[in-house]
Design goal:
Umud Fragment, subunit A; 4-stranded antiparallel sheet; single chain
């Protein structure tokens, strides 16, 4: 223990420090080149080699292409639902509603409004004239595929239904509508209408006399261009005495969307806001025969091209498709975790 010799297991080792391995410098890659080992810089941008997009990006691209048809189908279905139940565009082909609606105007028709309120005097309505004004035309009964194709055509504005009309509501069920008083005005329940704000300039309220009481569930409608409008006056001899059924109304035209210079809302004129109009109707008078020669034939309304249903359809289809894709990704990730 007290000897000067180092204890066993203590002190410096009996061998010297290791010598550097020969040839190590020759195995190092030249400066500026990429290494080939696991820790090299292979594939780094700027080293002269293209960047590999990786399988993830390719899978995403294939997934989008696979989901694109689903997106289109969902958007188309939503657009058809919107067109059938919410809003639809119509093209004005005749002068019967001038100057409120000019030839070539396109209007949007609200198909939901009458689910929340009743039809009002002064409303501009779009309705199906089959069975009332087009009584002699046999009703069409297309199959399901024909109706679907017709809806597609209507969505892009190709179809032309000759039994669809647009007019202004003058009389509601039970109203006594008469032309004319001593001042040449149409009266509803004895109340004269001041129609100068919407009648075609120079037109009289009516060139033919009439005196009708609107039957229950029906409407008396007229065009704003009275000299050329073929409306309830010209159909007094038809079933319903010129009136149309409320059930035939498709919706209310509420805005002009084309051309841009004509854009504007179709509000109810002030004359229809008179409180006395809602008084009980007077006793029914005899229905006079209309002077058909004084009322020129008009042209039925037809659906117009409008991007609104398709735009709303795509707006609804995008989040639906995104949610479906996200759910599929979460399900796939869960499955991978279960397998691991």
């Amino acid at each position: 223990m007290t000897g000067s010799s180092p204890r066993e297991g203590f002190g410096p080792p009996s061998w010297g420090p290791p010598e550097p391995a020969s040839g190590l410098e020759e195995t190092r890659p030249p400066a500026g080149t990429a290494g080939t080992g696991a820790t090299g810089d292979q594939g780094r941008p700027g080293d002269g080699q293209p960047e590999d997009p990786g399988p993830g990006r390719k899978r995403r691209r294939r997934g989008f292409l696979r989901e694109l048809p689903v997106l289109i189908v969902v958007a188309l279905v939503l657009a058809l639902v919107i067109k059938a139940y919410v809003v639809q565009a119509f093209y004005i082909p005749s002068a019967s509603m001038e100057n409120t609606l000019d030839i070539g105007d396109r209007v949007l028709v609200n198909k939901l409004v009458y689910d929340f309120r009743g039809i009002a005097r002064g409303d501009i309505v779009v309705f199906d004239g089959s069975g009332s004004w087009d009584f002699n035309e046999p009703p069409a009964s297309p199959g399901i595929f024909s109706r679907f194709w017709g809806d597609i055509e209507g969505l892009v504005g190709v179809s032309h239904d000759s039994t669809i009309y647009i007019k202004r509501v003058i009389g509601l069920p039970g109203d006594h509508v008469r032309c004319c008083n001593a001042k040449g005005q149409i009266t509803v329940n004895g109340v004269p209408l001041n129609e100068r704000s919407y009648l075609y300039p120079g037109n009289a309220p009516s060139a033919s006399a009439f005196n009708v009481t609107v039957p229950p569930g029906r409407l008396w409608v007229m065009g704003d261009h009275r000299a050329v409008s073929y409306d309830s006056r010209g159909h007094i001899g038809d079933p319903g005495g010129g009136t149309i059924p409320e059930s035939a109304v498709l919706g209310r035209a509420f805005v002009i969307i084309w051309p841009p210079s004509r854009w504007g809302f179709l509000n109810i004129p002030a004359t229809f806001e008179q409180p006395r109009l809602n008084a009980p109707a007077a006793a029914a008078g005899g229905s006079a025969a209309a002077d058909a020669a004084a009322v020129a034939a008009g042209t039925p309304l037809r659906p117009a091209t409008s991007p609104l249903p398709l735009a709303l359809g795509f707006a609804g289809a995008v989040p639906v498709t995104w949610l479906q894709r996200s759910a599929r990704r979460r399900l796939s990730a869960r499955r991978r975790r279960c397998r691991g």
